[in-house]
UniProtKB/TrEMBL annotation:
Name assigned to this protein: FAD/NAD(P)-binding domain-containing protein
Coiled-coil annotated spans: none
Family label: Belongs to the FAD-binding monooxygenase family.
Record-annotated membrane-spanning stretches: none
Keyword set, alphabetical order: FAD, Flavoprotein, Oxidoreductase
GO MF annotations in UniProt: flavin adenine dinucleotide binding; N,N-dimethylaniline monooxygenase activity; NADP binding
Length: 551
């Protein structure tokens, strides 16, 4: 089980490209990326104000920290450059195939491989290739799309999705409409307001505007937030920087209580946000009643919105909650019959929230993953689905714990997959998939847990696929720390295995009863068969005789 494909070269694909070759000896890894370079969302998004709403020092690889972030909340281009630099350092580009779009994946039972239909985007040709294992690292929001309003195709002005920003578009002095108030919509409004003559902001749902995610520092501001020269110089001392990182990143693993319904932590957030939002909209106080949600904070993803509320309070901005009915050739009509002319429309309407891959994945006799995940995704621990052998996910449904940091979550899930692949390779396993019984138990546990949380209140979010009341698939049923511990010790009894041996004897991999090192008779120098012998003061009994790489 050597031929492994990773689909996607965002943060997940880059991390897999680094860790898997180190943790799984003999793996032949190919990373398939539809774009011309690595970086994922940070390569694709270039709209005004694009930056991470999480501090850069916790949005970096835990094993490749960067003391040189120029801003506390880095701009998208700096994040892109950082991850591309990490990919170069660790040899990811040597395993990468860019401009390669996956069209379809079909399981071939006879060879126990996935046949991927691929498109060479640059050469405009299609071909197929087989892999023993496929790892989907396509990200949570991998397929942006324009909203499907009547008449949108007849609109003659400038129409773009924020994720498909036109770098040649100049909004200066124009009338512009922005649809959507998620993370990108909030950033676009805050950054366009000062440039345009008029801005119509269409927001279907109210949302809580936070100062920060974890109460870190003073939170986001619209202006760049720089560290002092003295602080940056102190980071040059590895001990000082490590202490800073642990204290700073530790804040993101707290506040888990705030997702529990009627908890004191959540009530406190509500009051904090109400006070902050009222202060920031004091120049247009009538806005507040249209902005404050009925649902609790954290039901939808919190959005630190520096400059957003202040922009809404300006005289050249109209905040419109009335639903859109249709587009005309030069404007937008809402359901109350009002038409507003506009020269440009920027759709910040997100991407697919159902977490379905943007290409069909099929097992003959079983059906497609798209059918198996309709109406709701169905996974074991967010990593695999019954009846879809040798297919695993990074950041899949229910695969990311609330609180914590994204890079750490990706690293621990990639490590879990490495344990799985190492077991499969060393024990001559042909196919693996979680059992339906184990998956059903996980789903039942998850549903019972989520019932206690604010995520099951009546909000529309990517956690429920944009369907209030639907099952929660956007989060792990527990904290990020909880998930990290669960991943440490895989429950192999929850998996179903077939073997390469014709007899299907699970012990066929025992071979001739000798290790490969013992077979090196006459080798010079002779193989070390007693690697376990060490100086007593160098032995840590907690991991003694458990080091997989020291045999």
């Amino acid at each position: 089980m050597k031929m492994v494909a990773v689909i996607g070269a965002g943060i997940s694909g880059i991390t897999a490209g680094i860790l898997l070759p180190i943790k799984v000896p003999g793996i032949q890894l190919t990373i398939l990326e539809k774009n011309a370079d690595v970086g994922g969302t940070w390569l694709e998004n270039s709209y005004p104000g694009v930056r991470c709403d999480i501090p850069a020092h916790v949005y970096q690889s835990t094993f490749e920290p960067n003391i040189g972030w120029t801003e506390e909340y880095a701009q998208g281009s700096e994040i892109r450059d950082y991850w591309q630099r990490v990919a170069r350092k660790y040899g990811v580009y040597g395993r990468l195939r860019v401009n390669t779009k996956v069209i379809a994946a079909e399981w071939v039972k006879e060879t126990a491989q996935w046949r991927l239909a691929l498109e060479d985007v640059a050469a405009a040709r299609t071909y197929s290739e087989e892999f023993d294992v496929v790892i989907a690292a396509i990200g949570r929001f991998n397929a942006w799309k324009l909203p499907e309003y009547p008449g949108i195709e007849s609109y003659s002005g400038h129409l773009r999705h924020a994720s498909n920003w036109d770098p040649n578009f100049n909004p200066q002095g124009k009338s512009v409409a922005v649809i959507g108030n998620g993370a990108s919509g909030i950033q676009v409004v805050a950054n366009l307001q000062k440039l345009v003559s008029r801005l119509d902001h269409y927001a279907r749902s109210p949302t809580w505007i936070a100062g920060s995610f974890a109460g870190e520092g003073k939170g986001r501001k619209l202006e760049p937030s720089y560290y002092s020269p003295e602080t940056l110089r102190s980071f040059e001392d590895p001990a000082v920087y490590l202490e800073f990182r642990k204290k700073f990143e530790g804040k993101f693993y707290g506040r888990f209580e705030t997702i529990l319904r009627d908890s004191e932590g959540n009530k406190k957030l509500r009051e904090e946000f109400k006070t902050s939002m009222a202060e920031r909209t004091k120049d247009k106080p009538e806005l507040l009643e249209h902005l404050l949600p009925d649902f609790s904070p954290n039901c939808r993803r919190l959005t630190p919105g520096p400059g957003y509320l202040e922009a809404l309070a300006q005289q050249n901005v109209d905040f419109i909650r009335t639903p859109i009915a249709e587009f005309t050739t030069d404007g937008i009509v809402t359901t109350d019959g009002v038409e507003r002319k506009t020269e440009a429309v920027i759709c910040c309407t997100g991407a697919n929230t159902d977490m379905l891959p943007p290409f069909p994945i099929t097992v003959p006799g079983i059906g497609s993953l798209q059918d198996a995940w309709t109406p709701d995704p169905y996974t074991y621990l967010g990593v695999a689905t019954p009846s879809f052998p040798n297919l695993v996910f990074i950041q899949g449904p229910n695969g990311t714990g609330y609180s914590g940091t994204v890079p750490n979550q990706i690293e621990t899930q990639t490590t879990y997959i490495a344990l799985l692949l190492r077991k499969a390779a060393s024990q001559h396993i042909k196919t693996f998939a979680p059992s339906k019984a184990a998956t059903d138990d996980f789903v039942a546990y998850s549903d019972a847990f989520f019932a206690r949380t604010v995520w099951t209140e009546g909000c529309r979010s990517w956690a429920n696929g944009g369907r209030p009341g639907a099952r929660i698939h956007g989060h792990w049923p527990g904290s990020a720390s909880h998930l990290n511990i669960v991943r440490r010790n895989p429950r192999w009894e929850d998996w179903e295995w077939t073997y390469k041996s014709e007899t299907q004897n699970r012990f066929a991999y025992f071979g001739n009863g000798r290790t490969s090192n013992e077979s090196l008779d006459g080798a010079d120098p002779p193989p070390d068969l007693v690697k376990y012998l060490k100086r007593p003061d160098a032995i840590d009994l907690r991991i003694y005789h458990e080091e997989w790489f020291d045999v």
